Amino acid sequence: MKKLIGTLFSAILFSTSFAQIDVKPEGLKVGDAAPDFTATNQADKSIQLKKLLTKGDVVIVFYRGQWCPYCNKQLSKINDSLDLITAKGATVIAITPETAENVAKTITKSKASFDVLEDKGMAIMKSYKVNFAVDEKTIEKYKGYGIDFEKANGTNGANLPVPATYIIGKNGKIKYVFFNTDYSKRASVKDILDNL
Q1: Contact (CB, 8 A) for 166 and 63
Q2: Do 98 and 92 touch, CB atoms closer than 8 A?
Q3: Cα 148 to chain centroid, rounded
Q4: What does pLDDT average to over the chain?
């Protein structure tokens, strides 16, 4: 019964339509050069994409926030199979607009043992063309469910990423993209492994 209620709650809560967005995010494409970035992880350590690529491929997962059950589920599944991913020489990082305090909540919920980066100023989301501004109607709707984007994201405000996944090859080029504006659709661990 608890699972059924949770499923119904998720269906009602996360029915955001991209038709309400003036400018739809486009994402980057396979073959594009991956923009370099440096950001701070959950341990307050600076992480740079360029340095990670010297070791092997990098899997980048954009997620919306600790309040999103689809995000937590995806990150949990990736963490459960992290040994399979790292065995192929790859590194996983997750990127979010949420504050460091909420990153800590995501890690508690998903048990993520890989780097989770707070994208201050949305510089990474913008460079990967996954960001969008949440419309006023949706902002108010989410507030009714106890989700306040200003509190969740701090100075990033009511902005979210499409929950896209990119695999960057050692050469700095994007070799795999999963980009779907339907937030309930995510790259699977199998998709990631098959493209490493």
Answers
A1: no
A2: no
A3: 18
A4: 90
DSSP state of 155: G
Alpha-carbon torsion (50, 104, 157, 69), positive or negative: positive
pLDDT band at 15 (very low <50, low <70, confident <90, very high): very low
> What is the distance between the alpha carbons of residues 120 and 11, in angstroms, rounded to a whole number?
29
SS3 content of the chain, % helix, strand, coil (to 5): 40, 20, 40
62's enclosing H/E stretch is strand 58-62
pLDDT in tens, 115-140: 999 999 999 999 999 999 999 999 99
Angstrom distances, CA of residue 97 to CA of 29, 48, 63, 105: 22, 17, 8, 13
Q: Go through 41-59 and write b for each residue having 16 or more CB atoms within 10 A of its CB, e for each that does not.
A: bbeeeebebeebbeeebbb
Q: State residue 89 phi and psi, 5-degree precision.
A: 85, 10
Sign of the Cα pseudo-torsion (126, 77, 107, 69, in order): positive
Instruction: Return the exposure string of 88-100: e unless at least 16 CB atoms fall within 10 Å of the residue's CB, then b.
Output: eebbbbbbbbbbe
Q: Tell me the CB-side half-sphere exposure of residue 178, using CA atoms within 13 A.
A: 23
pTM: 0.88
Query: Could you tell me the strand order of the sheet in which 58-62 lies?
Result: 115-118, 91-96, 58-62, 165-168, 174-178
